[in-house]
Specification:
Blueprint lengths: L2 H13 L9 H22 L1 H11 L7 H6 L3 H22 L4 H36 L5 H33 L1
């Protein structure tokens, strides 16, 4: 059992509403609220991507909206997004023009492969950077913390683009 699970279970036993069934109404409500917050926190911390998103927000490194997010994505990735969107348009045109299903699906699969490789690469980078952040554990210098948080933010934003690209391919495959 991980440290997170142990702490969650201990706090859950402490705050669970079942232990407050004879308490006054205000204490029961407070117990229910604390238990709800605890469950939300546990779900966030247990999911690596939700944890990362929360960390970036907490540390003030989250993108401040779509405009800022698009400015922080590398030009190379934006070029890939543009190229893939052009390919998807061509595939839609071929499909609506009567192209054989095997033909346009094969094109989609070929388009998906480099994006999947990029996704795997980004997931690996996020894991490595998350490990570096955990190792800092409040003892790192401000520069070190900033460097890791900036890299985490950049990989996170790129991950969102990659996820959207793969979702677009999935939609086309299922159309």
């Amino acid at each position: 059992m991980t440290d997170l699970e142990q702490r969650y279970r201990a706090l859950s036993r402490q705050f669970h509403p079942d232990y407050f069934y004879n308490a006054p109404a205000a204490e029961r409500r407070a117990s229910l609220e604390r238990s709800s917050y605890l469950n939300d926190a546990y779900r966030t911390l247990k999911n690596p991507i939700a944890r990362l998103e929360y960390l970036l927000k907490l540390e003030g490194f989250a993108a401040q909206g779509p405009e800022q997010a698009s400015k922080q994505v590398p030009a190379g990735l934006l070029e890939e997004v543009f190229a893939l969107n052009e390919e998807l348009d061509e595939i839609r045109d071929a499909r609506s023009g009567g192209a054989a299903t095997e033909e346009w699906k094969a094109r989609l699969e070929r388009a998906r492969q480099p994006i999947e490789r990029k996704r795997a690469e980004h997931e690996s980078q996020l894991d490595e950077l998350s490990g570096r952040w955990d190792a800092i554990d409040g003892s790192g210098s401000g520069d070190e913390r900033r460097t890791v948080l900036t890299a985490l933010r950049d990989r996170f934003l790129e991950r969102n683009y990659i996820t959207n690209l793969l979702a677009g391919i999935e939609r086309e495959l299922n159309a």
